Amino acid sequence: MTQYPDAKVYLIDDDAGVREALAWLLRTRRLLSEGYASAEAFESQAVVWAEAPEAPCCVLLDVRMPEMSGLALFERLLALPWQAAMPVIFLSGHADVATAVDAVKRGAFDFCEKPFSDNALVDRVEQALDRSAQVQAQQRARRELQQRLNGLTDRERDVMDLVVAGLPNKLVADQLNISVRTVEVHRSRVFDKMGVKSAVELANVLRAP
Predict the structure, then answer these.
(1) Confidence check: pLDDT of 50 > 70
(2) 0.90 exceeded by the pTM?
(3) Under a CB-based contact definition with an 8 Å cutoff, are residues 116 and 129 in contact?
């Protein structure tokens, strides 16, 4: 795992002893954690986050808790646009395994059956943090791309679309009923605003996930 100094693991379990044991276990790998005694306590924080946290993070979530269950919280988290940046690992008892497996099919990162292997659990946490970092990087790239696109004029967008489609400047000019020189000016501005040096590089940027 790449080391992420600001990474955080959210521990959501109604058993204080479990939270303390997990926090200690994570500290052995120099991982920070933050505990919550209920799904409601965590949701009260999560729902006000406008965007995904900037640092890698993941959730260790107990399936069975009083009032709101871990599964109910997971369903609510799935509705958040940035949820993929915060992988969820379920902690389940034997009776909950089938339910936890179903949650994995719907997008949870994994589940660990109690009693769990300490090393195996922390290994999965580290892998979840790696996933979080990757998703957050993709989300930042998409936001930056959208900001660059928003900076283009309508005519620059028209030129960009035709350039990316592979048309030479002469055909772009014919399509838009403008001069080749005007196309060259717009093309240069598009490259500058999008931070690229060629049509191929521009196409790759626009295809990025």
Answers:
(1) no
(2) no
(3) no
pLDDT tens-digit map of 167-207: 999 999 999 999 999 999 999 999 999 999 998 999 988 88
**Rg of the chain's alpha carbons, rounded to an integer?**
23
Strand pairing category for 57-62 and 32-36: unpaired
CATH number at residue 200: 1.10.10.10
User: Is residue 162 located within the same domain as residue 189?
Assistant: yes
Q: Helices 154-164 and 199-207 meet at what angle, rounded to 10?
A: 100
Is 125 in contact with 133 (CB distance < 8 Å)? no
Q: Are residues 180 and 87 in the same domain?
A: no
Q: Is residue 162 part of a domain?
A: yes
Give a yes or no: residue 74 inside a domain: yes
pLDDT band with cut points at 50, 70 and 90 for residue 5? confident
Strand order from edge to edge, sheet including 57-62:
32-36, 8-12, 57-62, 88-92, 110-113
DSSP 8-state secondary structure symbol assigned to residue 117: P
From 133, 14, 3, select the one nearest 62 (Cα to Cα).
14
